[in-house]
Amino acid sequence: MQTTQVYAVNRDTTNCLEVRTEQIAEPPAGHVRIQVEAAGVSYGDLLFQRGVVPGGPKPPFVPGCDLTGVVESVGAGVTGLEPGQRVAALVVKGGYTTAINLPAQRVVPVPDGVGAVNVAAVSLNYFIAYQMLHRVAQVRSGQRILVHGASGGVGLAFLQLAEHVGGVTVFGTASAANLDVVRRHGAVAIDYRAEDFANVVRGSVSDGELNPFTAYDENGTVDAAFDPIGGPHFWRSYSVLARGGRLVAYGQNDALRDGKPNAFIGLVGFLGGIVAPKLRPDGRKTGFYNAWSLEKKEPQAYREDLTEVLNLVSADKIAPRSVRTVTMSEIPAAFADLERGRVTGKIVLDCTA
Ligand SMILES: NC(=O)c1ccc[n+]([C@@H]2O[C@H](COP(=O)([O-])OP(=O)(O)OC[C@H]3O[C@@H](n4cnc5c(N)ncnc54)[C@H](OP(=O)(O)O)[C@@H]3O)[C@@H](O)[C@H]2O)c1
User: Fold this and answer.
1) Class of 2-123+299-350 per CATH?
2) What is the pLDDT of residue 224?
3) I need a surface site. Which of 44, 92, 177, 318 has the fewest CB within 10 A?
């Protein structure tokens, strides 16, 4: 059987992606072969291709962190999965393909009636938001949280999932054009270009003058802050945590700005925002969430949480802001739009086109 894939062939901004056709083997024991219908196209794919994520894949590799499709054949020893069944999976790479062999335990059945594009539009963003909200920060009713990039793919997922928890006060940062979306989901919207989010969050509980030397220690107010921005931004998010609060860092968007990778920003974020605060005995916690490390530690959580996200889609309880489908030959244009911050909603690769 043949498979067509999009390869990232270098770290450049142009001519970095190539469509190739290859043979795919029969699924080995314990694996299933999936005829892929759709895959998510994410900002994280671009960061991998540019090489700004430490430990990320090296070219040539096939990007794409989530996919959905139909089981085409099963390897020896696989039970509970049959040809013709629609399934979904998260992968570190390999999503931009028409067929793939995956270990059966990575694959989760999709509820009846949920289309492939809908699955690909939510799998990664809502899965990671769900894990950070529930597994890592264990957010519950009555708490206050800060969500950066709140109108983006993962940010909006946080907002919608927090609505389901109920009784959570959410502060969401976005640019001016996107504040309405944040408000529509019940969050306090903060224009991160025009306002200092830390002042807005702290001001919501105190009108007092902030002492710049003590503010970080005494005026924290949120139980959890979710930050994909990176660099010194991690420290600022940590600064608004209440005692016992948790910074969940999960991206380093600032490590790629205006098309230029900046590894130094990544290091500053990691050392200054994650490691240094751990040395302060102030009862606040920091950590970098990584979907794949958590999965190694808790494989059952991966299956449970992805299944829960698919059930929420099936029940129409979550949905991205908008979905734009692209073909393999349109991925370079999609990457360019992601890089320029021109994407609202989710891009999905239609692997059947
Ligand atoms: N750790 C993991 O396991 C894991 C897995 C998958 C993805 N990720 C990460 O998740 C992150 C988010 O992905 P995504 O698909 O949601 O991206 P996205 O849809 O492009 O959203 C990013 C948002 O960030 C906002 N933004 C940019 N600079 C900002 C700033 N200084 N302050 C506040 N908001 C700012 C933008 O808002 P405006 O447009 O309003 O300016 C944009 O909506 C990426 O960094 C990706 O690498 C992590």
Assistant:
1) alpha beta
2) 97
3) 177
